[in-house]
TrEMBL record:
One of its GO terms (molecular function) is hydrolase activity. Residues 79-255 form the Helicase ATP-binding domain. Residues 1-28, 503-536, 562-588, 667-822 are annotated as: Disordered. It comes from Phyllosticta citribraziliensis. The keyword Hydrolase applies. A motif (Q motif) lies at residues 48-76. RNA helicase. It is found in: Nucleus, Nucleolus. This is ATP-dependent RNA helicase. CDD domains: DEADc_DDX10 (cd17941), SF2_C_DEAD (cd18787). Residues 514-523 have a biased composition (Acidic residues). PROSITE patterns: DEAD_ATP_HELICASE (PS00039), HELICASE_ATP_BIND_1 (PS51192), HELICASE_CTER (PS51194), Q_MOTIF (PS51195). Residues 10-25, 709-719, 790-800 have a biased composition (Basic residues).
Length: 822
């Protein structure tokens, strides 16, 4: 039965291996294992390595192939408990190996209960707050499970059609998912049966339990059987009784390995902050990047709009380091592309929203820079947790406006976050304000992005809960707008009672807000009033661009905007998503109104006066001119939409080579038509011809696609060759970012900032040991790991499946859905 499991969207293939033999063996296996688990002595026994645990052979093999040998603290405590079936609240610092702490029990517990095959139904559900994290968990699951487990596993995170997901879902034994999307299936997918669900896992549990996901999660829980094991993991764990009650946990074990630790963040993480007025944050960021070109950096900003603006403007200024950007409004494919690029990069700077704050395990990140102050300490802890993972070193720097300093420091101290102030060396500080102004001046689209960034930043501050830190009235907003290259601060109206978390995660359909119509028009009006002072030629030119091409568009757009762009709720909002602008190319606007007809007055023809002195307006395309004889009519002129009624229908014409207009379809002379044979014959002929044409085009398309695939493969191989460093490790571990580079990076920064503790620089000189234990990601080169390719080849040969090593996450899924089988 298990052998008939198939790939995600692949047709069924019967596994040739005789199952009965295997079944008998695993039955014996299972009994022994069950007994060993029962005999586990949680008090007396100490667990150091994975071999100390009663694990199934496939899991052991998977762990070995991924080079995991010693248990981390959280793993040593949580896995034995979870194997015994306890509900667990697991808390451990970022980067301490929580993923394996739940992945292993999931595989093991389902294995022992033989929850395999389509009839067994869904045995475990693992929920993640973001798609990227879900994919990463799935990779870990795949790597540990691929050496012989027979489960079908899959990802349900949206970005695919519901029906495609549905087909795969009904076969799955383990699903990794985001809340919105899985809820959609629970409520809509016929045949998706969760009655046998044995395990529910929430990674980043506090995030999933907070307000943003409240409704979804409650609804999901309603579908699940109450008799189940529930595992919750996070670096900032919830202990709220109400949360635990919601999940109907049964005497949960609270496993917190770092509670007594001095700090809530990893020891190997050095944390600093600089005090820097909001209006100088971009200058400081630019200077920082200039001094750290050899590093791998993540820069956190508060909204997707900020990310886009900073990315786009910095890119134009050629910073000398590859830039990337990640936020929730990007297409799924783009997001995947970016995360894998950043993972593989040695030196790169990623601008991101909090969509990247939680859980993501990018290898060898040197720096986490927080340009915008995080909304709370938990967010801070998760953001900095993207570096200094699993025994590596890392550094984090937080930019604080003077008004934010006191409040934020108090909060950080209360949560045991050790952070020290450092100063910016003024000599090294470069100002990019003029450059930005120049760029915004030349490029209205960039300026438009800047305006959006400004608006979303201000709104994000406005909806922050912690008013001791976020005080809008204390921020130098005019200067801030100037620092973005804008000629003045756009005006914004606010709605009362906004709530950050709720807004941040609200499905987009509900987001049209009444709050912020006032933008450009009010801006220019208000400027006229209070800006009687000196106005330069440039100011006037700026205002002029404001009023034509994009102004109407801009104000319309910001009506639909909300500040938080952490976009986990995408699933629920995926419909709304389809229409939203693709961020593949950053500068796209939804609809461009050509300058010539930008303002309604320009769209209508020249005015004339009739005999009574009333205005007559000729509309392009309309038969009769429009008589403006009342206030209402006058008003009409302001609305393009309403004017449509008077314009009549347009007509599509085609032009021949001489430039003569023809109607789109011109009727043939009837006699000529008859000459060509009977109508039905002609129709058949036409169909035949078209079919042939399409077939030919198809062949060409396929050839092209093949070529592209081949080129990609060759490139990948070349890259692997050109980058032998990651290959020469004997144990197969990879080390991204050589020690030297990192050293260089640290040195550079040491030059840039006045270190308050000189000794730190020295201590960094001690090169850190190469990171050995990290398993390879599927997008990393696997060539020297001879076990993996063999395994894949074998599989390919046996089952005639043409999947090579997983190249995209679809490949990975396809492999895993058949999955974890061998
Ligand atoms: P967390 O979820 O606690 O933030 P992860 O599970 O993402 O941490 O693990 C962080 C890193 O540590 C990953 O790169 C992972 O491969 C590595 N890791 C986890 N457990 C072990 C282990 N037992 N031995 C070696 N490396 C490990
Ligand atoms: Mg994690």
């Amino acid at each position: 039965m298990a052998g008939t499991l198939t790939g995600h969207t692949k047709p069924t293939k019967v596994k040739k291996l005789q199952q009965s033999q295997k079944r008998k063996r695993s039955d014996v296996d299972v009994e022994k294992l069950a007994q060993a688990v029962q005999e586990l002595d949680l008090q007396g026994q100490e667990f150091k390595s994975f071999t100390d645990l009663p694990l199934s052979d496939p899991t052991k093999a998977g762990l070995k192939a991924s080079h995991f040998t010693t248990l981390t603290d959280i793993q040593a405590k949580a896995i034995p408990l979870a194997l015994k079936g306890a509900d667990i609240l697991g808390a451990a610092k970022t980067g301490s190996g929580k993923t394996l702490a739940f992945v292993i029990p999931v595989l093991e517990n389902l294995y022992r209960s033989q929850c395999v095959g389509q009839d067994a139904g869904l045995g475990a559900m693992i929920i993640s707050p973001t798609r990227e994290l879900a994919i990463q968990i799935f990779e870990v699951l795949y790597n540990v499970g691929k050496k012989g487990h027979l489960f079908a596993a899959g990802l349900i995170i949206g970005g695919k059609s519901l029906s495609e997901e549905r087909d795969a879902l009904v076969r799955m034994n383990i699903v990794v998912c985001t809340p919105g999307r899985i809820l959609q299936h629970l409520s809509q997918t016929v045949g998706f049966n969760v009655d046998n669900l044995q395990m529910l896992v929430l990674d980043e549990a506090d995030r999933i339990l907070d307000m943003g996901f409240q409704r979804d999660l409650d609804a999901i829980i309603d579908y699940l059987p109450t008799q189940r094991q529930t595992l919750l993991f996070s670096a900032t764990q919830t202990k709220k009784v109400s949360d635990l009650a919601r999940l109907s946990l049964q005497d949960p074990e609270y496993v917190a390995v770092h509670e007594a630790a001095e700090s809530a963040t990893p020891k190997s993480l050095q944390q600093n902050y600089v005090v820097c007025p909001l209006s100088e944050k971009l200058d400081t960021l630019w200077s920082f990047i200039q001094s750290s070109k050899k590093s791998k950096i993540i820069v956190f900003l508060s909204s997707g709009k900020q990310v886009r603006f900073v990315y786009e403007s910095f890119r134009h200024m050629q910073p000398g380091i590859p830039l990337l950007h990640l936020h929730g409004r990007q297409k799924q494919t783009a997001r995947l592309d970016i995360t894998s690029k950043f993972s593989a990069a040695k030196n790169s700077c990623l601008f991101a929203t909090d969509v990247a704050a939680r859980g993501l395990d990018f290898p060898a990140v040197d720096w986490v820079v927080q340009v915008d102050c995080p909304e709370d300490t938990d967010t801070y802890i998760h953001r900095v947790g993207r570096t200094a993972r699993y025994e590596r070193k890392g550094r984090a720097v937080l930019f604080l406006d003077p008004s934010e300093e006191e409040g934020m420091l108090k909060r950080l101290e209360a949560k045991k976050v050790p952070i020290e102030r450092i100063n910016i060396r003024q000599k090294k500080q470069q100002s990019i304000k003029n450059q930005l102004q120049n760029m915004c001046f030349k490029d209205p689209q960039l300026k438009y992005l800047g305006q959006k960034a400004f608006v979303s930043y201000v709104k994000s501050i406005h909806i922050m809960k912690d008013k001791e830190i976020f005080q809008l009235n204390k921020l130098p907003l005019e200067d801030y707008a100037g620092s973005l290259g804008l000629p003045g601060a756009p005006r914004i109206k606010f709605m009362k009672g906004d709530n950050a978390k709720e807004l941040k995660n609200a499905p987009r359909q509900h987001l049209s807000s009444s709050e912020d119509e006032g933008s450009e028009d009010e801006e220019s009006k208000s400027k006229k009033k209070d800006k009687e002072q000196v106005r330069t030629k440039y100011d006037r030119m700026f205002e002029r661009t404001n009023q034509d091409v994009l102004s109407g568009h801009y104000s319309k757009l910001i009506q639909h905007e909300f500040s938080g762009d952490e976009d986990e709720k995408e699933d629920a909002a995926s419909k709304a998503d389809q229409g939203s602008d693709s961020d593949d190319d950053l500068m796209t606007v939804k609809r461009v109104i050509p300058a010539a007809e930008g303002a309604p007055d320009e769209a209508v023809g020249t005015d004339a006066l009739d005999a009574d002195g009333k205005k007559i307006v000729s509309l392009p395309g309309a038969k009769d001119p429009l008589l403006i004889d009342s206030k209402r009519r006058e008003k009409l002129l302001k609305s393009k939409k309403k004017l449509l009624k008077f314009k009549g229908n347009g007509q599509k014409l085609v032009f021949d080579d001489e430039g003569n207009a023809h109607e789109l379809y011109e009727l043939e002379d009837e006699e000529d038509f008859r000459k060509n044979g009977a109508a039905e014959d002609q129709r058949q002929r036409f169909l035949e011809e078209e079919r042939e044409r399409i077939e030919q085009a198809d062949v060409a398309d396929k050839a092209l696609a093949k070529e592209k695939r081949l080129a990609k493969k060759i490139k990948r191989k070349e890259r692997a060759k050109a980058d032998p460093e990651s290959d020469d490790e004997e144990d197969g571990g990879v080390e991204l970012g050589s020690g030297q580079d990192q050293q260089q990076a640290f040195d550079d920064f040491a030059k840039f900032l006045d270190e308050t503790r000189a000794s730190d620089v020295e201590s960094e000189e001690a090169q850190e040991p190469p990171q050995k234990k990290r398993p390879k990601k599927w997008f990393e080169d696997d060539s020297e790991d001879d076990e993996a390719p063999k395994h894949k080849k074998k599989k390919g040969g046996k089952k005639g499946k043409a999947v090579e090593e997983p190249e995209t996450f679809e490949d990975l899924e396809a492999l895993a859905a058949g999955m974890l089988n061998e």
